[in-house]
C-alpha cells in the first residue's frame, strides 16, 4: 500500500526501516510497539535513546547486527564511506578559506606533504589511509593490532607508517 504522508507511514506501519537515525522532528511519530530498524548510533545520541525508551519502541540498530563469525556486515559499508570522507573533510577544513592553516595534503613544489595521522586501522582507518595517500599525504596509522599494521604495509606497498597505538604514540 502506498501512502501519502510520513505521518501515515509511521502511524500505520508495524516496522519502519530507515537508513539514518530518527531526527528530533520524527520523535513524535514513534509509538509503543513500533519496531524501528535503522542505524541508531545511540552512544552518541542520549536524547534519541531516551525517546526510544520512553515511547517503548523496539530499536534494532544496523550497526549491531552481527554474523556468527563476529563480522558486522551492515556497519562495514558505512565505515567504508566514513573512512573515505574523513580525509576529504579534513582537507577542506585545512583550507584558509575555511579558517584552516592553508595546508594542502599533497603539498606543492618546495612544500612538504601534510602529515595525516589515523587512529585505528580498521575499515574506516584503511579507507581513510587509501584516500589520504591518494591525495598525496604522508600517512601514519596507529592501532593496537600489529597484524592490521603489518597488513597495511603490504596493502599500501610500504607507503604508510605504522605505530603501535598508545597514549605516548598519540601525543607524539
UniProtKB/TrEMBL annotation:
Q: Name one GO biological process term.
A: alanine catabolic process
Q: Which residues form the Alanine dehydrogenase/pyridine nucleotide transhydrogenase N-terminal domain?
A: 1-82
Q: Which residues form the Alanine dehydrogenase/pyridine nucleotide transhydrogenase NAD(H)-binding domain?
A: 94-172
Cellular component terms per the entry's GO annotation = plasma membrane
Name of the featured protein = Alanine dehydrogenase
Provide an example Pfam family for this protein. Answer: AlaDh_PNT_N
- InterPro entries registered for this protein in UniProt: AlaDH/PNT_N (IPR007886), AlaDH/PNT_NAD(H)-bd (IPR007698), NAD(P)-bd_dom_sf (IPR036291)
Per UniProt, which keywords does this protein have? Oxidoreductase
Q: What is the lineage of its organism?
A: Bacteria, Bacillati, Actinomycetota, Actinomycetes, Propionibacteriales
Q: Which GO terms describe its molecular function?
A: alanine dehydrogenase activity
Q: Does the keyword Coiled coil apply?
A: no
